[in-house]
Amino acid sequence: MKNRRDFLATSLAVMGAGTLSGKTMAQTPDPAPMPVTQPYSDAAALCAMPGNVATARFPEGFFWGTATASYQIEGAWNVDGKGESIWDRFSHTRGKVKGGDTGDVACDSYHRYAEDIALMKRLNQKSCRFSLAWTRIQPDGTGAANQKGLDHYSRFVDALLEAGIRPSCTLYHWDLPQALEDKGGWPNRDLMNYFADYAGIVAKALGDRVKTWAIFNEPWVFTFIGYQQGDHAPGLKNGDLAWRAAHVVNLAQGQAFRAMKAMSPDALIGGAYNMSPGTPASDSAADRAAVARFQAVNELFLYPAIHGRYPKAFKGKPPAAMGIKPGDGKIMRAPLDWIGINYYFRQMVADAPLRQSKYVGYNSWMPAEGPLTYIGWEVWPRGLYDIVMTVARAYKLPIEITENGASYADGPLPGGRVPDARRLAYLKAHLAELARAIADGAPVRGYHAWSLLDNFEWSHGYSQCFGLTWVDVRTQQRILKDSGLWYGRVAASGRLDV
């Protein structure tokens, strides 16, 4: 099974969209050009950058936080009326997840959330990014709400607020109700209305206390990796279904936005989009133009929300399989209040004929000039600066880093301490670049480390550890790592040299 580095890298190469008919879509400017990332002169110094670390400062009121996701930490997969999700089905299918791992128990946060909030408070956190399990709210994805599920999240939100932590809620982090997948899943246009109903139920129940929302987390991952590459749930390998799913998700994003605003007019609604800055493979004009198309793929689910159409920066036309209908531009449009960026690595980009790279007209791959994390991703802190500045210039909206982090295999010493110097260096370097972006005018108001806990990492099971907290999945013991303790000092001071 391909690891996440492989599928993130190759997915950007197979995605794309084309110009939609001017009869149904408003004509608006395309994304701003991506800045060209120059190589570091000294790759060995990549994670240090002492000058930047020493001078980096973050503003008062900055939202220091951590991020989690329902299926990855909650466990309790079939209690209190919860229905089956596609990740329940996928992980229970032999050969789909490394080691046969499942999220049945995960970090048992459904029962241990008070312990997890205590960790956040110890780390001086001001924001908790978490997601809801749709199957706890509507076990089959439609119909009346399951009150036990709503009550659980209501108690969780109350506990966060009591601890002085802002609840930042993601509606959907990949765990679609299996009953809806049985009806066709995200390629089924009916999903946009089912999802809007779910969004309205949640906003009505929690909107009096939750004011910050993300509709989707990394929508191109669960569409293209779930429906085209098959490495994620539901595990299908059909490119036409992936393209249709992508369009339905854009429709659902718009419908959910309106349903939530109707129930909670003061809600601040955005999305969490995974973005990799592109570095041209050469100085040629063709490769630089390919980077612009690559950036349009980065924005495949952001650009339509703001502009009501797909970007024009692609070669070719949108696939007929998307099922675009007249009036879809109006449905997709959702004037988001803020933008979330999930950043992990950059990509090299080269021009390619359409016959070699369908729709998008480029090839992309992950370089290895910088050090690699345990999962095999290149460490490239400057990429965070590049992508933040690109989005800031193009959209003029508040930005939050909704995910950023690194996997390393660090466990506890006999005395109980968990030294993880590489993760600490990774965080310092990336936060220094984020501080530089803020100093250069980017309206960044928050940063969420991925993740609070070592957890279930999708097809990797428990073999990859991104957490600031070490978790023994057998006993559920939690121990803050050195990186977590350092991050707590940063959150208290707004400085990196602590």
Name a few traits of the molecule.
498 residues, TIM Barrel, alpha/beta, 17 helices, single chain
Using the coordinates above, name the CATH class: Alpha Beta
Structural class: alpha/beta
Strand order of the largest sheet: 1-2-3-4-5-7-10-11
The 3D shape can be described as: globular
Low-confidence stretches: 1-7, 9-44
Order of helices and strands: HHEHHHEHHEHHEHHEEHHHEEEHEHEEEH
Radius of gyration: 21 Å
The CATH architecture name reads: Alpha-Beta Barrel
Mind sketching the topology for me?
Blueprint: H1 4-14, H2 50-55, E1 63-67, H3 70-73, H4 86-91, H5 109-122, E2 127-131, H6 134-137, H7 147-162, E3 166-172, H8 178-181, H9 190-206, E4 212-217, H10 219-229, H11 239-263, E5 268-274, E6 278-280, H12 285-298, H13 303-307, H14 328-332, E7 339-342, E8 347-351, E9 362-365, H15 382-395, E10 399-403, H16 421-439, E11 444-450, E12 469-471, E13 478-480, H17 482-493
Parallel strand pairs: 1-2, 1-11, 2-3, 3-4, 4-5, 5-7, 6-8, 7-10, 10-11
Antiparallel strand pairs: 8-9, 12-13
Helix pairs in contact: 5-7, 9-11, 10-11, 15-16, 16-17
Summarize the structure.
The protein is an alpha/beta fold.
What does this structure look like?
The protein is α/β, with parallel strands linked by helices. It has a single domain, classed as Glycosidases (TIM Barrel). The chain is 38% helix and 13% strand. It has an eight-stranded parallel beta barrel, surrounded by five helices. Helix 10 packs antiparallel against helix 11 and helix 16 packs parallel to helix 17. The chain is globular and about 60 Å long.
